[in-house]
Specification:
This protein is α/β, with parallel strands linked by helices and 345 residues long. It has one domain: Ribonucleoside hydrolase-like (Inosine-uridine Nucleoside N-ribohydrolase, Chain A), CATH 3.90.245.10. It has twelve helices and 14 strands. It has helices at residues 19-22, 25-28, 44-56, 107-123, 140-148, 182-193, 205-209, 211-217, 229-232, 237-240, 252-270, 279-287, and strands at residues 9-13, 31-36, 66-68, 90-91, 94-95, 105-106, 131-136, 158-164, 223-227, 293-297, 299-301, 313-315, 328-330, 334-341.
């Protein structure tokens, strides 16, 4: 943890992401915005209220803005009925404090405010540290912003974009999408998060929701790093969530994290599986890059809806790079690999 990144970042995530917000409280104070990406059957205002309550459990006192998408970026089979309750004040059956007077912001407006302030500071000769953008949900909102404001889509403002999404290794039947047997993933998601996927939903859903947005972000003048599903599936929640120190009482955030993790792990046993860390592995790797192996490859995503490969992520074979992912262990904490997208053909 001594080499953790301390630079500012934006976290674009799904609805009320729970333990991914509370696990590393000291690091999360550098977050400039939590942007909730899903807007579908689960009202985003409820998710934002729950997220505000989760953040209020942290002990550093940092005020982190929370915003919601203004357009529908979800699908009818990608809602979170068990994770985010229809009534405010609970998640996975755990009580969450209500933040008085909380109102979520609009993601596009808040992003414009953040980047406009950076531009103003640069024009005044001030030192500005570029933002990292961590996406653990659909890429729609971030892509829409940079399409509307391309003047910010460069390394002066954006250090890197990291996305949990896609998959590069084929399934056992040769199809692309979830690396593990898809029926196992389907059962695990249903048992733990209440997410029901259609039988033919073979692709990883963050990319599947909006392949065009992902393809767009890959073209920007900054590093694009993909943590595919087949990498995060190798990282399990019980190996990455930190233990609560015995030398002091746990903080409210740590208590919530431990209880929430225990419930999720118990549900995973219904599917006879260990629970992959997925989003948390991506977030943790983005803020602790020394704990992972990054391979420089040219990544592509099919964004042509007329093709059967629409939504599939792949490595461009023309580069001569092998598809096989390499893994390494570091301090028994993180086992994953990510891909850094190279520009050009």
């Amino acid at each position: 943890m001594s080499q953790i990144e301390t630079g500012p970042f934006i976290h674009s995530t799904g609805n009320a992401p729970g333990w991914s917000l509370t696990s590393y409280a000291d690091d999360y104070r550098h977050c400039r915005l939590v942007a909730l990406a899903y807007r579908g059957e689960t009202p985003p205002e409820i998710a934002a209220t729950l997220t505000a309550g989760i953040l209020s459990l942290r002990s550093d006192g940092a005020q982190i803005p929370i915003s919601v998408a203004h357009e529908d970026t979800s699908k009818t089979d990608l809602n979170f009925p068990k994770l985010v309750r229809s009534s405010m004040g609970s998640m996975n059956g755990l009580a969450i404090p209500e933040v008085a007077g909380f109102e979520p912001l609009d993601t596009q407006a808040k992003l414009l405010e953040i980047f406009s302030k950076m531009a103003q500071d640069l024009s005044e000769g001030k030192t500005v540290e570029p933002l990292s953008i961590i996406i653990t949900g659909p890429a729609t909102e971030i892509s829409q912003f940079f399409k509307a404001h391309p003047e910010f889509a460069n390394r002066k403002f954006v250090k890197k974009i990291e996305l949990m999404g896609g998959a590069v290794r084929p399934n056992k039947d040769g199809s692309r999408g979830n690396r593990d047997d898809f029926k196992v993933h389907k059962l695990l998601l249903k048992a733990t998060l209440g997410i029901s996927l259609k039988d033919n939903s073979q692709r990883e859903w963050n990319v599947d929701i909006d392949p065009e947005a992902v393809a767009h972000l890959m073209t920007l003048d900054t590093d694009f790093i993909l943590t595919p599903l087949d990498a995060t599936s190798e990282v399990f929640l019980d190996t990455i969530v930190p233990s609560i120190p015995q030398s002091r009482p746990p903080t409210p955030a740590e208590q919530f994290m431990a209880a929430d993790t225990a419930k999720l792990k118990a549900r995973a046993k219904l599917a006879r599986q260990r629970l992959p860390a997925w989003d948390l592995a991506t977030y943790h790797g983005a803020r602790n890059p020394h704990l992972r192996l990054t391979e420089d490859l040219y990544i592509e995503v099919c964004d042509d809806p007329t093709l059967p490969e629409y939504g599939q992520t792949n490595i461009n074979h023309a580069t001569g790079n092998a598809i096989e992912v390499t893994y390494k262990m570091h301090q028994d904490l993180l086992k994953t690999a990510v891909y850094r997208s190279l520009r050009g053909a």
